[in-house]
Write a structure and sequence with these properties.
Helix content: 40-55%
Number of strands: 2
Shape: flat
Order of helices and strands: HEEH
Strand order of the largest sheet: 1-2
Radius of gyration: 16 Å
């Protein structure tokens, strides 16, 4: 027998205010994971998230020397 949470699949959050809350929490979570990965594994991380509604680009780079121009 398998125990634990069973996810019923990932789908769009229909309620706009709940979607914004989910986006904010998940964005924070993925940034925390990127920071942890960078520290634990001594890797350079470059993460980009584009918010279509606000037309805003969110960038995280683990090192000031590691920039968008290196990635492109």
């Amino acid at each position: 027998m398998v125990k634990g949470n069973k996810q019923s699949g990932i789908k769009l959050v229909e309620n706009v205010s709940q979607r914004n809350v989910t986006y904010s929490k998940r964005k924070r979570g993925i940034l925390k994971k990127a920071i942890e990965l960078s520290i634990l594994c001594a890797q350079d991380i470059y993460l980009v998230v584009f918010d279509k509604e606000k037309q805003k680009l969110i960038e995280f780079n683990s090192s000031e020397e590691f920039t968008r121009s290196i990635v492109s």
